[in-house]
Structure formats: C-alpha cells, structure tokens
Design brief:
The complex is a heterodimer of chains A (234) and B (149). Chain A is of the alpha/beta class and 234 residues long. Chain A has a single domain (2-227), classed as Rossmann fold (3-Layer(aba) Sandwich). Helix content of chain A is 47%, strand content 15%. Chain A is built from 7 helices and 7 strands. Chain A has helices at 11-22, 49-61, 84-111, 132-151, 168-181, 185-194, 204-216, and strands at 2-6, 26-31, 42-43, 66-69, 115-119, 156-162, 222-227. Chain B has 149 residues and is of the alpha/beta class. Chain B has one domain (2-143). Chain B is built from 3 helices and 6 strands. Chain B has helices at residues 36-60, 81-101, 119-129; strands spanning 2-5, 13-20, 23-30, 65-72, 108-115, 141-143. Chain B has a 6-stranded mixed sheet, with helices on both faces. In chain B, helix 1 (36-60) packs parallel to helix 2 (81-101). Classes of the chains: A alpha/beta (234), B alpha/beta (149). At the A-B interface, helix 3 and helix 4 of A face helix 1 and helix 2 of B.
Chain lengths: 234, 149
C-alpha cells in the first residue's frame, strides 16, 4: 500500500511512517517542514489552499491509496482565556484541514480499498481541564468520522486516539496546562504518569504499531482506537 | 426569560440565549449545509460562539444552571451529518473541559442534544436539569435523539 502520512516530521507521525515502512508499505511523508532527523517528501501548510492542492496532486502522482493524517498542534489553554484566534487556529489545523484532505482524497482511497486514518487523542474521548481548544478540535474529528460512516459511501475510517505520548508536542501541551493551572511542568508530568494504568506514558512506537494495524485491518467501516495505556477507556 | 443574543439568520448556525432565575440556556441550531464553507464556519465561528456563551453564562449565573440546548433538524440530510456531528462533538469537548476547569461556584453546565420535534423530551430534561437536583448532572451530555450516528 502507498500511504500518505501528514505530520511526518513530528514525534508521532515520524514513528508511524517508520512503522508503516517496516511493514512493507510505501510512505509519502508530508509536514510543514522536515528536519535532519525526520526529512519529508513534501513540505507545505495544511491550511494553505495552494500547498494543499500541491499535496493532493503529488499524492495522486505517487499513487497514494491510504491516508494517515497525523498533523496537528497543541492548543492548551483555559477556556476563560481563550480568544477567537486561538480557538480558530486549533480548529482549522486539527480538524478542518483534515476534512479538506478527506474531501480531496476520499474517493481515491475508497476506490483503491485503502483506509483513511486520523489521529485524534484521548482528549478527544474525554476532555481535560486547561486544554479545551485542543479537546474541541479532537472531539470534532470523532464526531465527523461517525457522521461520515452514517452518511455512507466512506472508505474505511479509523480514528487513533493516543494517550499522553513522549513527544515534543506533549511537552508543549503540558507546559501550557501547567501555566494555566499555575503549577510546574514536572507536576503535570508526574500527575499524568501516575494516572496511567500501564505505568508509563505512551511511546511513539506504540502508535506506529497501532497505526499499521489500523491501515491494514479490513473491517469494520469505523474503528475508534483508544491507545492510552488504559488511562482513557473506550 | 429574556432573549439576550442571536446570530444572523443566514449564518450556518444560530444561537439564542435566554437568562433568568439563575438559569442560562443557549438554544443552538446548526444549519450547516453540505457546502464546505458552511461546514468550516460551523466548526470555527460556531464553536467560538458557543464558547462565548459558556464564558458569559459563567459570569451571569454563578451557582446556577447553564444548558447548551443543541437542536438538529428532524430531516437532517446525510450530507449534513459529518459537519453536524463534528460540531456537536466539539461543543461536548468544550462543555467537558469547562466543567473540569470550574469549581462548584460555576453554573452546572450540561449539553442537551435533540431533534426539533422532540419538544416533550427536551422540556422534561430541561425541567430536571433546572430542578432541585439537576446540578449534579453537571458535565453530562444528554443526547435525546432516537437515532445517533
């Protein structure tokens, strides 16, 4: 299978891309920008129409038949302090840009028997204090996927909901939550780790394995996978 | 109760807020069509409008009740489902986050989802939520729809 992975320059996206390749899939990596550690095939802003059109054209040229949308931003802030620009940015990047990518590639994915996988979060299953804008954007992905399946005609849809995973994005989110709550980053980290039944935070490799399974598993029409170490159960 | 705000009739969503007796109710109607622009506006402008209501109600009815009353069309076309369900879930995320952030002095915030034709079920639910013990349902979502995606 040829799989487009967005957010492939990030901690989770790069691990997923590596896991898919290890499983024998061809991977097309996309992100805003690559790095020496995590180079990408296509650079571009998912909220920019011209960049998105270029991404779609390149995906078609390379015969992409599955999509794994792993791009996203942290958006941790208390709701009382959330202004329009902050909330809108979270919604546009984490949710609306995924909808646009689906609009452009869903028919191709469906026709080739592929899967369209989106990365939500355990914060898309159960909300978290001082993380409301992020929660709203990740909740939206799950509702959207359920709506697509109910509407009919969708390709295989999978929503991967990671728990707290050791990535730079997590650190950014924890720092925002700590600032809003008036406590330290270490306190947030310690409290969160203690609440995970698995006894540890998630690792990118955990998500690589889950994503590979989600791309390959042929049924059912929709899977919402909570890969959270038991912290949030679905 | 007195109407305190509403949005344009041409917007993909409309919010009519009422306030009185320690109760704030926002009737939210999602009107997004299948058009991409409507869906996107619902998920950005619409979600922010709900957040504004949540924050306003928190100040206006301390220790009261705040209900997000999301009403969907009875004959919602399948093309509307993805955007509408995304909106409902985004609102649920905000509602849960607010509940976790706020203490007992904040109004008990709940989300009620129904179709327009479910007036009786809706009224009974609002009566419970605004009654003597309804505040212990703070943070809950009561989705009254007979058929849910």
């Amino acid at each position: 299978m040829s799989v487009l992975v967005t957010g492939a320059g990030g901690g989770i996206g790069s691990a997923i891309a590596a896991a898919l390749e290890a499983a024998g899939h061809e991977v097309v990596r996309h992100d805003v920008r690559g790095s020496a550690a995590h180079p990408v095939d296509i650079e571009g802003d998912m909220t920019d129409a011209a960049d998105s059109a270029r991404l779609v054209a390149e995906s078609e040229r390379r015969g992409v038949d599955s999509v794994l949308a792993a791009h996203g931003i942290a958006a941790a802030r208390d709701l009382a302090g959330t202004d329009r620009a902050f909330l809108e940015r979270a919604m546009r990047i984490n949710a609306v840009s995924v909808f646009h990518l689906y609009d452009a590639l869903a028919e191709r994915v469906r026709a080739s028997g592929g899967a369209f996988v989106v990365i939500s979060s355990q914060a898309g299953l159960v909300a978290e204090a001082n993380n409301g804008p992020y929660c709203a954007s990740k909740f939206a992905l799950i509702g959207w996927a359920r709506g697509l399946v109910a509407a009919g005609g969708a390709p295989r849809l999978r929503v991967l909901c990671p728990g707290a995973t050791e990535t730079p994005l997590l650190r950014s989110a924890f720092e925002g939550m700590a600032a809003s709550a008036g406590i330290s980053y270490d306190q947030v980290l310690a409290e969160r780790s203690a609440s995970v039944p698995a006894g540890r935070l998630g690792r990118p490799e955990d998500l690589g394995a889950a994503a590979t399974w989600l791309v390959e598993v042929p049924s059912p029409a929709l899977i919402v996978a909570a890969v959270t170490g038991g912290e949030v159960l679905s | 109760m007195t109407a305190t705000s509403s949005s344009s009739s041409t917007a993909p969503f409309a919010i009519e807020a009422t306030l009185g007796g320690g109760v704030a109710i926002a009737v939210v109607r999602a009107r997004a069509g299948a058009a991409r622009e409507d869906r996107d506006a619902l998920l950005t402008d619409g979600v922010f409008a709900v957040l504004e209501h949540i924050n306003a109600a928190t100040a206006e009815v301390p220790r009261g009740r705040s209900i997000l009353d999301v009403r969907l069309a009875d004959d919602l076309d399948s093309a509307h489902l993805p955007g509408t369900e995304a909106f409902v879930e985004a609102v649920r995320g905000l509602m849960q986050a607010h509940t976790l952030e706020s203490g007992p002095e904040a109004p008990a915030l709940t989300l009620l989802v129904s179709t327009e034709g479910q007036a009786d079920a809706r009224e009974r639910t609002v009566a419970y939520l605004t009654g003597d013990h309804g505040d212990f349902s703070r943070g809950a979502t009561y989705d009254l729809r007979e058929v849910r995606p």
